[in-house]
Amino acid sequence: MSKGYIKFWGVRGSNPTPDKDKIEYGGDTSCIEVRTSDNELIILDMGSGIRNLGTKILSDPSYPKTIHILLSHFHWDHIMGFLYFTPFYDDSFTFNIYGYNKHTPTSSFSKKILDPTFWPVSMDMLNAKINFIDLDGEDLIINSNTQIKYTNHSHPNTATSYRVETENQSIVYTTDCEHPAKNLNKNVIEIAKNSDMLIHDSHFSNEDLEKFKGWGHSSYGEAIDVANKANVKTLVLFHYSPNYNDDEVSRIEKEAKKIFKNTIASKQGLKIDF
Question: Model's pTM, two decimal places?
Answer without folding.
Answer: 0.97
